[in-house]
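Retry 2 of 3 after timeout on previous attempt. Resubmitting structure tokens to design endpoint.
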């Protein structure tokens, strides 16, 4: 078997595993949300409107970075143009996840960023989770907003105004980790604001935490780096 086919099969398995984690983690409901991964100039993405519990790796659609279908008998996710724009914007991104997670999407509905109340958020993202301008679902301008506002680290995230959350990373697993941390940060922020007036971390401390985390927290590249 050719090396590129082996790598593509491995990517399909990784994207499939990431997709199954979205409903399991409470990040999506029904058939909403999606995930993708990139290997070279090929992108593997969820098909549109298929229930997560019915998906198999062979159902995933393979596109090139310009959106042409290379493999698959199903229509790709309606958010494929946004995913592809994100990939074209940054060669170090290898995974993208889109969710409608409850607390983070509540911030998106309000048009609010998620402030840096937590060291965990500072670690992963090095700042607030920004809010986009409004873009209609499925529009490639979502990817343009992401490229300009989501940061440049290993873990990237943007709240899409009145829509949901997009995250990205070096792998689909990184993008999933980012989505989980965004939702956790949003939930804690919501509860903290409900109980009182939380204070944000000073900018210098945010930078220091993020730099320390980026330099090598955890055991290997494959781990998600979450603090124990």
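Retry 2 succeeded. Sequence:
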């Amino acid at each position: 078997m050719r090396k590129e086919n082996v790598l593509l099969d491995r990517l399909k398995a990784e994207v499939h595993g990431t997709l199954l984690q979205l409903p399991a983690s409470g990040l999506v409901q029904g058939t909403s949300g999606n995930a993708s991964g990139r290997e070279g100039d090929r992108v593997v993405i969820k098909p549109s409107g298929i229930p997560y519990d019915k998906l198999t790796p062979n159902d995933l659609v393979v596109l090139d970075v310009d959106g042409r279908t290379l493999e698959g008998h199903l229509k790709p996710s309606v958010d494929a143009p946004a995913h592809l724009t994100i990939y074209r914007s940054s060669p170090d991104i290898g995974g993208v996840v889109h969710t409608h997670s409850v607390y983070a999407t509540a911030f998106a509905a309000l048009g609010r960023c998620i402030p840096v109340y937590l060291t965990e958020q500072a670690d992963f993202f090095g700042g607030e989770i920004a809010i986009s301008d409004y873009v209609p679902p499925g529009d490639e301008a979502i990817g343009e907003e992401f490229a300009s506002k989501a940061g440049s680290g290993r873990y990237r995230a943007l709240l899409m105004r009145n829509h949901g959350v997009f995250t990205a990373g070096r792998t689909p697993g990184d993008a999933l980790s980012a989505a989980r941390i965004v939702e956790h940060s949003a939930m804690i922020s919501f509860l903290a604001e409900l109980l009182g007036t939380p204070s944000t971390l000073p900018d210098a401390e945010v930078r220091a935490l993020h730099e320390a985390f980026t330099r090598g927290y955890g055991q290997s590249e494959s781990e998600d780096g979450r603090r124990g």
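Attempt log closed. The chain is about 40% helix and 15% strand.
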